Structure formats: C-alpha cells, structure tokens
Amino acid sequence: MTVRVVVWGENVHEQKNKVVAGIYPKTMHGTIAETLNAAGGVSATTATLQEPEHGLTAERLAETDVLIWWGHAAHGDVSDAVTERVAEAVWSGMGIIFLHSAHFSKPFKRLMGTPCNLSWREAGERERLWVTSRNHPIAAGLPDHFELENEEMYGEPFGVPEPLETVFISWFQGGEVFRSGLTYKRGAGNVFYFRPGHETYPTYHDANVQKVIHNAVLWANNAQPRIAKVTEAPNAPVETALEPITERGPKLHEAGEEGYR
Amino acid sequence: MTVRVVVWGENVHEQKNKVVAGIYPKTMHGTIAETLNAAGGVSATTATLQEPEHGLTAERLAETDVLIWWGHAAHGDVSDAVTERVAEAVWSGMGIIFLHSAHFSKPFKRLMGTPCNLSWREAGERERLWVTSRNHPIAAGLPDHFELENEEMYGEPFGVPEPLETVFISWFQGGEVFRSGLTYKRGAGNVFYFRPGHETYPTYHDANVQKVIHNAVLWANNAQPRIAKVTEAPNAPVETALEPITERGPKLHEAGEEGYR
Amino acid sequence: MTVRVVVWGENVHEQKNKVVAGIYPKTMHGTIAETLNAAGGVSATTATLQEPEHGLTAERLAETDVLIWWGHAAHGDVSDAVTERVAEAVWSGMGIIFLHSAHFSKPFKRLMGTPCNLSWREAGERERLWVTSRNHPIAAGLPDHFELENEEMYGEPFGVPEPLETVFISWFQGGEVFRSGLTYKRGAGNVFYFRPGHETYPTYHDANVQKVIHNAVLWANNAQPRIAKVTEAPNAPVETALEPITERGPKLHEAGEEGYR
Amino acid sequence: MTVRVVVWGENVHEQKNKVVAGIYPKTMHGTIAETLNAAGGVSATTATLQEPEHGLTAERLAETDVLIWWGHAAHGDVSDAVTERVAEAVWSGMGIIFLHSAHFSKPFKRLMGTPCNLSWREAGERERLWVTSRNHPIAAGLPDHFELENEEMYGEPFGVPEPLETVFISWFQGGEVFRSGLTYKRGAGNVFYFRPGHETYPTYHDANVQKVIHNAVLWANNAQPRIAKVTEAPNAPVETALEPITERGPKLHEAGEEGYR
C-alpha cells in the first residue's frame, strides 16, 4: 500500500530570495517530495499557497494519507477555511508533519491549542540532534545522534502541550536546547513536529533529515478508512439504549432534537 | 492566600426555563460561587454572557486565579475576542475548569485543538463516578465512587486529546461509560474538565460534586506571577549568545528584525 | 514480514479444572495462537510454565517479535530470572501483550513499577467495551462498542501508571468501570494490557476479542533490529567528545573505568 | 503544615574520599537537609545506608511526606526489603525525589520498570539547564536557564518511561543533551528525577539547585492521608453489587475466597 503524501509549501522565498532559490532550485516542497518518492513506499505530490484553495481542496485531502507542511513568511495568508479543513482531515485520520517554521502555521496552532512560540537566532550555528526514544519508528536507521553544521537556532521553552513522545532533542552551539521531534495525536490523526529546515541552509538535502521525514510519513499513516462526520455529537435515544432504562425527570430537549453546539 | 475564582455562567436557561429556574433560583453560577465561598480558601464571584465583554475584561482576568466555565445553549454568542483573551490568560498561568456542556464551549475547543464531541441522552438516568487516580488532589476526601441519581448521559468516544491524567470515569445506567474528570496543561495553565451538571437536575447541590469543584479550584491555582508576553517569540542575538559563536552563512533576517508569524 | 508471536500460557486450569478444559480443549494459549495464525500475517506458537525455563529461553525470545502473556493461579511459580529476561527483551524492542489476570503477573508488575491491583467479582455478568480512541490501530475494524455476555468484573481503581493511550473502557452490569485497553512503552518495547479473558468463560472464542488481540500484535511489533546491550551505561571519553573540551576539576573515576551500578 | 522530609544519603564518598569530604564537610545529605530547613516550610532530617534498615523503618516512612534519595557507589548494598518498603510508601502517597546518580538506585529502577541507563563523562564541563515547562511549580522563582560551571555529563538516551512532564533539559559543553527534570506518578506518589549533583563538585551549594529541590519537595508533598492496604485487590461480592445482578455461569472461586496473586 503506497502512502499518498502531499508536501505543502508556502513557496515564497524560493521565488523571491536568491539564496533560497539557489539551494532549492526545485523548491523546498519539490525537493522533499522528490526524496520521498525516491525512498519508496510513498507517492508524494506538492501543493502551494498560491494555488486555488492553497491546493488543498476537500477532494484532495480525502485522498491524502499524510500532509507535510512548511511555511514561514506567509502564515497569515493561509485561509481560515483551509485551516479548519486540514484540522478536520487530521481528526478523521490523516497524518500530518509540521516542519521547522511551521510551528507558527495556522494548522499547527489550531491543533495544539497553545502559542507554539520559542526563541530563535539565525547564525548558521551547529545543531546536533539526539535520539531520545531508542528504536522509535521515526528514528529507524538513524545513529544515536546526527549533526547539521548550519542551522537556525530554536530555543526552549517551546510553547506546546506535553507531547505523547519526545523523539529528538537538539543541542545548539550557542548554548540552547530544543525538543526537536515531538509526537501528538489529535482525534484519529498522528501529528509529528520536526524542527530542522531553515530555508537559507541545505537541510532538506541532508540524508538523515530525509530519513526522518520518510520514517515519519510511514509512522503517521493510518491505514484505516477516514472517520465520517468526525465532529458530530449523536443523540442516543432512550428507546434504543443498550440497557433498558425509563426516562425520568424534566427535559430540555424534544425527542429527535439536535444538541446545542 | 485566598484563591480568586470567577464562575462564568451562560445564564440563559435560568432566565428562560422554569425547571432550571426552580432548581437554581440563585442561578447555576451563583450557586457554584456560593458553595465555593462556603467551602473556604476561595473568593468566588460570577460573570455572565450578557455583561459587557461577557464580564471577562482583561483587567478582571488579570485578577482571576481560576475561571470556571458553564455554557450550553449559547456557545456561539461568546465572542472570539473574549475566547482568545481567556486562552491567553490560561497560557500565562490562570487555571480553568470546564463543566459539563462546556465541552462544546469556544474556550475549551480552542485549548484542546480537537472536536470535543461525544454522544448524549437526556433521560434522567443514574450516573456513578469512579475515582481512577487514588488520592489525586481533585479527589481528596471523596469515596472511591459516588452516584448522581438523575443525570444526562455523555458517552465515549469523547473527542479530546489524551489527558495528562484521568481522575474520574462514569458508569451510566443505560450502558455507556465516559471519562468524566480529565486534567490538561496548556502553557502554564492547569485545565480540568468535569462532566456532571445538566441544568434540569440538581447536580450542583450535590455535596460530592461541590467537593470536586472546590478541590479542582485549589489544584488549578498556580501561585506564581502570570507570564508576561506569553505568545512572544524573542530573537536571541548572536552578540549575546550564551556560548561564543560566529555568525555564518546566508541570512533572511536583518539584525533586530522580528520573526515571521 | 510475518510477525513471530509466542503465546505464553500458565496452563494450570486447563489441566486441572473441567470447566476450563471443556471451554478450551486446545488450552487457552493454544486457542489464541490458532486464531492468530488463522487471521494472517502472524506466525504464532506457544510456551508454558511447565517447560524448561518456562519455554522462554534467551534464544527463543531473541526470535520473538511479540509475546502474549496469560497467567492466573501460578504467578509465583514464574522464575525471577525469566521475568528479568522478558523485561530486557521488551526494553530492547520485543512487543508484549498482557491478558486479563496477567495484571498480577511478574513481568507486568516489573514493567509497570506499581501494584497493578484492582477490585473483582466472578459472577458471569455482562461487560461492554467502549472504544475511547477512535481508529486506533488496536481498534481497527471494531464497532464503537462490543459486549461479552459473561465475564469476571474488574473494577477501578486499577493500580497502574497513567498510560500512553486509553483504547478501551469497560462498563459492567454490576455498576463498575475499568480501563480495559491501555498502551505503554518500556524502552523500545510496545506494551498493551487487555482486560477480558476469565478462564471459565469462552472469551477467547469471541470474534471481537480475537480481532483486538490480532490488531494488538500488529501494533506491538517493532520492525527494527533489537537493541544490543540495552542496560549498558557507556562512558563517553573526554578525548572523543563531540565538542572539544578540557578535563577540569577533581575526579572519582580513572580513565576507562566502568560507572557504579 | 510543615512538610516532613528525609534526605537519604549513601554516605560512602563523604567518608572515604577527601575531595568529597572537603566539599561537603557536613555530608551531602546533611547539606541538602540544612538548606531545606533554612528555606522554610520543611522539617528535614537525614538517614543513611549504614543505619539499621538504612534508617528507613516502616515507622519512619509512615511519618515521611517526601523522601530524597542520593546514592552512587553502593546501590547494591541497599536491601530489597527496604526498596520494596519505599516503593509501597510511594504508591500510598509519599513523594520521592531522586538526585543525580540515584538514576541507578534500586527504588528508582523499581518504580520506573526500565533500565534507567544513560551515557556519562566525568570532566568537570559546563552544564546549562533550561526550563521547558514555564511556571511549573518545580521551576518557581528560577530564571529561564541557569548554569553549573563544573558537572559530570549525563547524555541521552535516558532509559526511562515517557514522563508526565519534562521540566528541565540540560545542555552540555561537550555536545550532549539530557532530560534533567522529569515528573512521574506511581500510585498516589509524586516522583521527581533531578539530574545535577556529582559528588566531586559543589552542586548542592548552588542556590538555583537548592531552589529546585525545595520547590520539588513542596510539589511532591501529597497532603492527604496515606492509602492503607495499597496493594490489596478486594473482592466485590455479588450480594452487595451496586446494581442488582444474579450470579451466572461456572466459577473458579468460592465465596469469600481471596484472588490469586
């Protein structure tokens, strides 16, 4: 079963910034999709901010097993409607992976319920990622640590809820640490945040980073059919209660009425 | 140190529905505040939907240690601005307790990042709450289980993230179960969801329910000063890095520039 | 990749008790292994208390992807050496599933670090299991609830640590509730506790129960190679530190010395 | 209500090693107890390995709200009986704080159910602890990071279960990271692991470290009465079931019989 992946890219700095365009002549999302397809077991395509509905129509999300999100300069341009649609797809079972500056993207903040802030420094310093959960599927085939010689620093405290599992923690040359790989579940959807990937460095050309993203796609994929009507709050009528009961006391609702929302 | 509590009530059915007005002649929020004040260690006041800014101005939230939220018929009438203000107060350290139908309130959904849905039945059936975390501060002084002879049923699956701790699970006469007491943390704020409290039954006159709410207030209170600028993402300049580093590689940002949001 | 499963059975009541022998003429472990093999993707064999080293030699565990454990009357007869060997296999990546009365087995208590106690009643009452984590891989293909007409009751509080995820909660006819499906991780090993399976009832002939166990085997399997020397605490010499450092201050340990344990 | 603390010290290197004796002329446990008493709200005494029953009789544990544990060279000399007694006290509500090399102590391994291993280097390098959970009670009054100029390095992966909360993460000069402050709950007992404290450095004279330990004592204290018979698995007789049920089907147990353990 091939995992159907959409790599969503903001696609701004690749078009406007010569440094970024030079490092990623095929764009960042294009590069990530290409390496995923090369890694196998995955069929990855791309979508961008500039497309109608940002390339994320209801039809497309229904056929997406795992969505990867990279954004930075244009978080505010993502529509609230698409944000909510993405969140609903996650709740109903779509996996999602947020990369680097996507910590401030609308879908990530929507799913976390927290500020998602951090401290940062753009100095091209050394980052070293340590695996904190040995043999976690997302760390499969990796050494116990690996380095990125030039990266932007992200520092704690990271304004997110306590994760399900902490998979990576980063050491930075300038003295900070950061929880770089965190798993969450929101509804039936698996969520992974992965820190590296500042656009002025060749991070997504790094073999270890590529392996993490490929592993995370396989981990995030939920093979089961998507949950229908995932936000519904169904009434369970007295007449069909699993154990026989008799209605008692005063009521607000008429039979068959929907609940308040 | 007295814990400053605001009990927020939607205040709709107390005014419009004779049954509810009969059970709660002092309103639901008024009743809860009164019993908290009688229990000691707490200074509880009330706020309602109908007041300007729903009674929750920035000034008032700054002086609130723990906010209690009950709403049902008018979730949609709560303004997005007040919802966001409440969320920020929680992140910065205010405790919050959501009661019963507040599972569908805007602040709860905002903080959870999930649908927060469930199944339900209004039949006045018996509910029995079991303590699943022995000696949890929220269960202090309670027996290992207690009953509410007439309650609305809420059934699993409950559309919330995996909690920090499950404190209560309910058994329902009609055959369902529900995780009735769940703790979360969002930023520096302690969050507790407590299931019982349908407005057509005298639940908030029950001594065990009152004890849970009083315990939860003491548990949710964070004695430390509120965090300022809780959503800020500060830049850490190269010049003042904790370990001496030299800037390397290309950059997006000018010195002193704010990050993208 | 076929998942290699060993179903461990205490094998006491099947030999001594006519009722149990009548329900499980092929033994409980034999029945579970047979249904797993029939479900596909799995190669299941059995091991019992009475075999040398309880059938769980180091060699056998090394070739076991997932171990299933059922015990009840003879927990105390399991050797401490085998218990520790099983725990080490789990830490290094073997999955493990504990069924019913195995809540009091030595390996479960060893891995949990808690009393693992509960309340109980043997009255053949109705149990209804509710799925609390929609589309969890362990609940794949199940309805949102299912019933076992005759089961032993287990009641909360269940003396275990807060789980990674709660997958099932049981409703009992006599008024109790129980967290019936709980996931944990211990080292690289996935752990699942599943409540049903009292030996005087035909629980392991139930299609839904069989599906849960099969799903749990697939979920617990960790495809990666087992971690070698999983309890080792390696010294990281100054000479090969990842960042150049100079040794400073007084020392307890000579170079190359092992740490205290 | 004064919190009654016992600081347990192995008391070996203070007696045998001149460096350690020079830094801690009042012993390590004596120093920690002294600073706790000076901080207020606490009544701290000490106990050591060499005393009968290691100074931890059942009577003494019954009167201890929070136990602090430091050991290193003589983990193996701690009796299994005292280890189990400590674990039971924790389950029944006693708080416990494990310091530094106590990661390999018998009580910590007993409560975690995992190897509790790590990598290490004794080179007097710089450690910087970052607060990852803002305004956590254990971090009250601390800056967002603090440094220890000379410490032993502990590196990930740390062989412990996923914690309830991660409060501190350490950066090390030599390039490693470590989850330095972790909370757990075992039964009714709050558990905190805090990394710093190698005996050849003056760590427990550091004001920030002292503040963390004092905060952790207040956090770990559970004001409720200790749970009696915390490992018991009571039978719930059919006759007194909360909902009327009739016994059905075959049975293993006679009425009033104890369950198997």
Provide a concise account of the structure shown.
The structure is a homotetramer of 261-residue chains. Chain A contains seven helices and nine strands. With 261 residues, chain A is α/β, with parallel strands linked by helices.
Q: What is the radius of gyration of chain A computed over CA atoms, rounded to a whole number of angstroms?
A: 21 Å
CATH superfamily descriptor of chain A: Class I glutamine amidotransferase (GATase) domain
- What is the count of helical runs of chain A? 7
Q: Helical proportion of chain A?
A: 10-25%
Number of strands of chain A: 9
Most strands sheet of chain A:
9 strands, mixed
- Using the coordinates shown, work out and report the CATH topology of chain A: Rossmann fold
- The helix-and-strand class of chain A reads alpha/beta
Q: How much beta of chain A, percentage-wise?
A: 25-35%
- Provide the spatial order of strands within the biggest beta sheet of chain A: 2-1-3-4-9-8-7-5-6
Number of domains as seen in the coordinates of chain A: 1
CATH architecture verdict of chain A:
3-Layer(aba) Sandwich
Listing every helix as H and every strand as E from the N terminus to the C terminus, the arrangement of chain A reads EHHHEHEHEHEEEEEH
What is the assembly state of the chains in this entry?
Answer: homotetramer
CATH class of chain A: Alpha Beta
Unreliable stretches of chain A (pLDDT < 50, length at least 5) are none
Largest interface: A-B, 70 and 70 residues
